[in-house]
Q: What sequence folds into this?
């Protein structure tokens, strides 16, 4: 997919239909079919990242991240997670049609796709992230997890930190009280 986009950027079926020779038509038609087939596939960077992370750490752990690092993480994984959610729904739809999975799994995948479209967007998550006053959030990090799982982990971390803020009372600062002698004032 990356090679096709590098060598023939933006190739579409319209390009194939506009071809003047049969060889050019067949080439562009095949390339456009490949692009269409793999449009929801993970980019090469995501595949390499998951592969490298699986080799490093095997145990899930909690990571404390700054707001800035979390915003960068959201910017990187949100579009990939959106594509993964779409692909999961399509894969599950086909599995249900082939009677390999129950219909409830299609509902679960559809709910996840809808969540990503509503609450898992860059703007929705960064708006909620702006409400975090501590400057950090804790995320459950699982090596080799998909971008969709990482996005839900980020959202869970934001929710946890916001809940922690609500339950922890804000410190109130009371000024020191000084005794003032008012004996010289007559009533």
A:
């Amino acid at each position: 997919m990356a090679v096709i986009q590098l060598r023939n950027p933006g190739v579409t079926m319209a390009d194939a239909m506009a071809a003047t020779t049969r060889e050019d038509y067949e080439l562009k038609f095949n390339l456009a079919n490949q692009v269409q087939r793999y449009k929801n596939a993970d980019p090469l960077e995501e595949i390499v990242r998951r592969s490298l992370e699986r080799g490093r750490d095997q145990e899930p752990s909690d990571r404390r991240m700054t707001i800035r690092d979390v915003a960068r993480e959201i910017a990187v994984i949100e579009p990939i997670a959106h594509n993964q959610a779409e692909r999961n729904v399509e894969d599950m739809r086909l599995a249900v049609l082939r009677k390999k999975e129950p219909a409830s799994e299609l509902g679960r995948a559809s709910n996840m796709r809808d969540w990503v479209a509503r609450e898992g967007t860059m703007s929705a998550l960064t708006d909620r992230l702006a409400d975090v006053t501590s400057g950090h959030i804790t995320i459950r990090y699982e090596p080799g997890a998909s971008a969709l799982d990482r996005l839900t982990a980020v959202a869970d971390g934001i929710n946890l930190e916001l809940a922690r803020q609500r339950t922890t009372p804000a410190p109130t600062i009371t000024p020191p009280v000084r005794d003032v002698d008012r004996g010289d004032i007559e009533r």
Observations:
- Strands lie at 61-66, 136-141.
- Residues 85 and 114 are 9 Å apart (CA to CA).
